[in-house]
Amino acid sequence: MPTSAVPARRVRTRKTAVVSAAAVALLFAAGALILGSGPGTGPAVPAGADSPTDAVSPAQGAPSADLLAYAGPEQASRLDLGPGPYTLPDDPCTALTEETLAGLGHTASSGVPGERGCSWSALSPDGGLHGLSVSYTAWEDADRARHRFDEEFARVRGDEEGVHWDQSSNAGEQSRLALAERDGAFLATLLARQGEVHVTVVRAFTPGPGGGEGTDRSVEVRLLGELGRQALGRLG
């Protein structure tokens, strides 16, 4: 893969995409360990946490309403970027606005940074476990990113049993959204592309001990598109 024309800080390799796929596959199993529910039913523990219990804590100032009903800010974000190539944000934990993070039960300061990505976990007032992650992958040019889009979406979508649908979402030049549901838990995955950059947004939920109804698909379509636009809007 030729990389001579790409600044070192923006070069990404296939390894990142593989790691992202593995993280998505572990979301359900990690939540099961945290809540003591059956195997394969929960969201991810952020990378870098010492233990599952270290990674999960109620977000300060989180709204008391059902966090699953949050569909993003009233005014949808507009993506107004000039032509690429783009630079990735120095701090991926600033990919989403404070208002949006609060609506999802998280805070900007509770993000756990990783290599070109950030993860959040929090408990809602009813004991449900909410996981969120945003990650960036920059290819050497827009043509390469466009040609790899479907392959990378298949990779991050995985073959998780219970994926009911996938569709387009209004984020960037290309975007696809998949939702897996099982026993009241869900895993929503968005891959969006702007120029040579892919952004992957993953949101997951495991109900508390009392159970739960899962997510409204129309809410997830609107929300994940908004999260994708916000994350892409942080490109320089």
Keywords:
globular; about 240 residues; alpha+beta; single chain; 7-stranded antiparallel sheet; 6 helices; disordered N terminus
Main sheet: strand order: 1-2-3-7-6-5-4
Largest sheet: 7 strands, antiparallel
User: What integer value in Å does the Rg equal?
Assistant: 17 Å
Low-pLDDT windows of residues: 1-65
Structural class: alpha+beta
Task: Report the strand count.
Answer: 7
* SSE order: HHHHEEEHEEEEH
The coarse silhouette is globular
Protein architecture, described:
- There is one protein chain.
- By secondary structure, the chain is of the alpha+beta class.
- Helix content is 27%, strand content 23%.
- It is built from 6 helices and 7 strands, in the order H-H-H-H-E-E-E-H-E-E-E-E-H.
- It has helices at 14-25, 27-35, 52-55, 98-103, 142-157, 217-232; strands at residues 112-114, 117-123, 129-138, 163-167, 174-182, 185-194, 197-206.
- The protein has a 7-stranded antiparallel sheet, sandwiched between helices.
- Strand 6 (185-194) and strand 7 form a beta hairpin.
- Helix 1 runs parallel beside helix 5 (142-157).
- The radius of gyration is 17 Å and the shape is globular.
- Residues 1-65 have low confidence and may be disordered.
